[in-house]
Amino acid sequence: MSFQHGLKPSDVLTNQELMSTFKCALVGGMRFSHRTNTLVLISDHTKSLYDDRWIGDVFHYTGMGKSGQQSLNYSQNKKLCQSNHTNVTVYLFEVFKQNHYVFLD
């Protein structure tokens, strides 16, 4: 049975609500939860650390790592890369205003 979060696209959560709902960490752009078996991706446009963006209907998410080449075999990047072949469900939130996490799906 998959995790039931009760959210609809465009719902807005605070960081605390996001953490409480998905049982994930309070910080980070990729937050895996063992308790819900979910990976929450956060594209925070209020920070200039990464250049996540939509190109047409495809979202280009930067992933984890601040310098050098990123690896698909590293930490949460690996979870995201393998998510089509595992039971981990991925959810995406975008942030355009501090502490307003917009649920996309």
* Class from helix and strand fractions: alpha+beta
Q: Please tell me what the overall shape is.
A: globular
Helix run count: 2
Outline the low-pLDDT stretches.
none
* Euclidean distance between termini CA atoms: 18 Å
Strand content: 25-35%
Rg calc: 13 Å
Give me the strand/helix succession: EHEEEEHEE
Strand order, largest beta sheet: 1-7-6-3-2
The number of strands is 7
> What percent of the residues sit in helical stretches (DSSP H or I)?
10-25%
State the major sheet: 5 strands, mixed
Averaging pLDDT over every residue, what do you get?
A: 86
Key phrases:
five-stranded mixed sheet, two-stranded antiparallel sheet, 105 residues
Topology:
Elements: E1 12-13, H1 15-22, E2 30-33, E3 38-44, E4 53-55, E5 58-60, H2 75-81, E6 89-97, E7 100-103
Parallel strand pairs: 3-6
Antiparallel strand pairs: 1-7, 2-3, 4-5, 6-7
